[in-house]
Write a structure and sequence with these properties.
This protein has three helices and 38 strands. By secondary structure, the protein is mainly beta. The protein has one domain. The longest helix is centred in the first third of the chain and has 19 residues. It is elongated, with a radius of gyration of 23 Å. The termini are far apart.
């Protein structure tokens, strides 16, 4: 988002927020600002819109809508854009909402957004659920609230985005479904992946306070998180870069850089996990509690520099080291077993 665009969005939000807090909903609906924006609803049909301004767009019953250079400013109490069992193509457009910017749901729903900006003061900027599909490229996704999150993908939905930027103070991406992110940058408190999620992060940068969280799914009968990082840069300010909490999960990290100020690579609490490193060097410690178990595989010239369970001395980790890979201990470590493939143990 360029400077002028950011200023424009902030000014509009301030105007809308001030208006809503200083008058009733009826007074707001009678105001000049509200009357200057129209609500667009489409049931079925195929329509193309260009150079329009709305306060809300609602699609249902297999509607197909192509929008380009459209501005949607929603200061009402629902989503700026709702797509239900319909298709939306969004090009060179702006969506700004006091609540959620875009909600998509239903197995017939497909949204393709290109070169567009989406901002929210709500719980999420994007909410994708109930088998909906969202694809996006060259997107600017911003949540301007103190605790607001970026993207929520759940209930068998799917999301694929690339060349995009997400900036929020809450959770950047929250999902129990299928998510693929490439050539993108996310700045957030954390990324949260529930059991049931299958997440692929490629050629991207993630700047987080609390890293990647792999957690139990309290609402769905799902039991595993799959996370694949390839050519990723992950920076974590506090705590472990990867945390498993009450979850079963597998993590594969290839050709990536993992940085954390606390020097903790991974933490497990009441979890069962697998960590595979491929052609990756990671410096930091691994800690588990006594109710967890972790299998580590070092392959393709990977290097792990750090200790395992030095403080609690739990024997809950098994590490397998393949040829040309190295585990460089920095302190005494406690493991259940060491498996050497085509190697000998020295020292």
């Amino acid at each position: 988002m360029n400077k002028n665009g950011a200023v424009k969005i902030i000014l509009i939000i301030l105007i809308m927020s001030a208006l809503l807090t200083s008058c009733t909903e009826e007074e707001y609906r009678a105001s000049k600002l509200y009357r200057s924006l129209t609500s667009y609803e489409q049931v079925g049909e195929t329509v193309t819109l260009k150079n329009k301004k709305y306060n809300r767009v609602y699609l249902t019953e297999e509607a197909q809508l192509d929008m380009s250079k459209v501005e949607i400013y929603n200061a009402d109490f629902d989503q700026a854009v709702m797509v239900e069992d319909s298709s939306l193509a969004l090009l060179n457009s702006q969506v700004l909402s006091k609540t959620i910017a875009i909600t998509s749901l239903g197995k017939e729903t497909i949204i393709n957004a290109i070169s567009s900006e989406m901002a929210s003061y709500g719980l999420f900027v994007l909410d994708v659920s109930d088998k909906a599909l969202f694809t996006g490229s060259n997107l600017k996704i911003t949540n301007l609230s103190e605790n607001g999150s970026g993207i929520n993908v759940r209930s068998e939905a799917s999301m694929v985005i690339n060349n995009s930027n997400v900036s929020v103070k809450g959770v950047g991406v929250e999902t129990d479904a299928i998510v693929s992110i490439s050539n993108s940058e996310i700045t957030s408190s954390s990324l949260k992946f529930y059991e049931g999620a299958s997440v692929t992060l490629t050629d991207s940068r993630f700047y987080t306070d609390h890293g990647l969280l792999l957690v139990d799914n309290p609402t769905e009968n799902k039991i595993h998180v799959s996370l694949n990082l390839e050519k990723v840069k992950l920076n974590t300010t506090y705590g472990a870069a990867l945390s498993m909490i009450d979850a079963k999960a597998s993590v594969k990290i290839s050709e990536s850089t993992i940085g954390q100020n606390s020097k903790n690579v991974m933490s497990l609490s009441n979890s069962e996990g697998t960590l595979t490193l491929c052609n990756t060097t990671i410096e930091g410690n691994i800690n588990t509690d006594e109710t967890s178990s972790l299998n580590i595989l070092l392959k393709q010239e990977s290097v792990l520099i750090g200790q395992i369970n030095n403080e609690n001395k739990y024997n809950t980790v098994t590490i397998q080291i393949e040829e040309a890979s190295v585990w460089e201990l920095t302190q005494d470590s406690y493991v259940r077993g060491i498996i050497l493939k085509d190697k000998t143990l020295n020292g």
